[in-house]
Give the backbone structure.
Amino acid sequence: MQNFVFHQPTKILFGRETISSIGSESIVFGTRALLVYGSGSIRENGIYDRVMASLTEAGLEVIEYPGVRSNPVLSHVREGIRVAKEHRIEVVIAVGGGSVIDSAKAIAAGALVNHDVWLFFKGKKSVAGKLPLTCVLTLAAAGSEMNGGMVLTNDDLRQKFGTGNQHLKPQVSILDPEATFSVPLDYSVYGAVDAIAHILEFYFTTGDPTTPVQDRLMEGLVLNIMEACERILVDPKDYNARADLMWCATLALNGLTGAGLGPVGFPMHMIEHSLSALFDVPHGAGLSVVIPAWMTWRNEQNPLKFAQFARRVFGVLESDDRLAANQGIHSLKSWFKKVKSPVFLEDLDIAPSAIDDLAANAMDLARLWRLREYDQGIISRILQGCRRSGLR
Amino acid sequence: MQNFVFHQPTKILFGRETISSIGSESIVFGTRALLVYGSGSIRENGIYDRVMASLTEAGLEVIEYPGVRSNPVLSHVREGIRVAKEHRIEVVIAVGGGSVIDSAKAIAAGALVNHDVWLFFKGKKSVAGKLPLTCVLTLAAAGSEMNGGMVLTNDDLRQKFGTGNQHLKPQVSILDPEATFSVPLDYSVYGAVDAIAHILEFYFTTGDPTTPVQDRLMEGLVLNIMEACERILVDPKDYNARADLMWCATLALNGLTGAGLGPVGFPMHMIEHSLSALFDVPHGAGLSVVIPAWMTWRNEQNPLKFAQFARRVFGVLESDDRLAANQGIHSLKSWFKKVKSPVFLEDLDIAPSAIDDLAANAMDLARLWRLREYDQGIISRILQGCRRSGLR
């Protein structure tokens, strides 16, 4: 196990009827609030009304800032920062999924500085603080509700970049599984895939082979995410299934799974971000295409961990490590198909002729994230493996 | 899954060479420090010198308060509170295991009030704050380094009581696995048993059958604790084994395992505390006697969870739930024997004639903790099951 610091002060309120606490949890930090949300689905499912009632009752003055889209964009965040500064906002309140929370983080951090917020994403400036942030989560996926990460797409440059910082962790996050009842099934699945991807990035990219505690934690989370996802497909209003998925997605990326692993990379996200940046596909849908291809490529170098994954998560009995590993990868790909998440570029309507452009785009992020193992040729090769008629 | 609040702000520094940070982590809270430790083993293994060097370098004025014993006593804490008040202590620094950290918590909380600290334990007063507390952990067992619990024995009344409160969580805990290299093997095992017991209390006393996320987390922790413990018995200086045990013991009781389970009880601890209070046996040694007997009693009422435990942790293949459950309990008892932790009252030199006194003592705690299921007859019956020639 490698040295680590684990410091996770975000307060989580989890369960039924917790949304009504957003007012009392937010007023602690100030009265002038910026309410960040998305395209308005929270108006349809009643969450907006419950949030506003709670905020009003607690005495908050609310400036609304809707319009965050999936794969949130820099231009919208820049305008949010301007609004936050203009209204001398004291607390930012995010109501939505990872896109909304990430946008709210960027606004909360950008509101305290005079330089362009994109400099944080380019690694040119470090986040030294942010306005207090409280969240109501409406999608189990990104884990942003309990970590210091944020991802934005620069709509001018077509770059989807992410960065992380201790100061970006929300002060409070409210997780009511019922808030996810109305999430469409395809996006529920993409959320599950995203959470699985976060775990697999840690699980397969750590260079430390002595992490049995973290391994079992992660294997258990993957199993539970898969089970919960299947139950949700049977009954989208299965409270416990929604709760299991929600809590697993949070735990997948709140620092716990990675603590002790040493340096890890996010190569599957690095490649997927190019799909989202160039073709605006849902993040989870892109991931289920990239994951099996990346695993197949990576497995050629290091089958041991893949074999363990195959045996513990999919019950593979094969004793040869390489064969077992391949069976595990095949099982995961089959599971993606079973829950109707895309597994080929063609499922995303991306022609194989785009692979060169995708690889070039991904290389920007590979450089920024210092994923030195990857060059454009390797990324292209992995993307070739995402074709229906892949190289293997 | 039940509603929960998860709020765990303790900062963990984990790994090699982390002890030298105790000074810089503590000076943040003030300069006048009370250094709480035990019988002086930290002087023998060099930890004392490293802590003092770090505190001195950071500029802390240190008042030493050693003498905490295993099963720490109220009288010593009361004197510590007097010393803390006399010297207007600003930060309490605990260097030791759960006994030392619990004593330091009680001193840190008691130093801020004018009433007797025992009132916290009797539930007559609530902890509303404490002096800042930083810890250097030297024993993997209690989990006190990352939670708000504390346990003390009232040496006048021979009562071992525990209480918990959000305010009691340490500000910072430093976990260096090498600090546990010199823990005697028997106490290393007792620590592992204590950590397993914490998990089993949650796992088997929740009334909610819909907690698959927490179940897998806990099963993984138990498996890892057992594996780490066996590796430590082979090589007490196996860094990774010490690290695995240390982190598992922390995670076992930092709020994560219990989040979402709803109300749980600590009946095995309730019964064990009577053994410690009346016979001063090591806590973990008492627990490995009580656990199989309690499980056997409890299994009669609810075999399903015990069968799941048997299958997932011990690989039991039996399809009948009750038989599988019994095999799991037997396997756990056999494992305690294998690692040389006591499994019978007689192993602790406690005569069966003491059972009535033990049950009467345990009832005090059963009432305080509101374990309404238990009366003296039931506790006696469970204790009878702890005899070498037990009822079953």
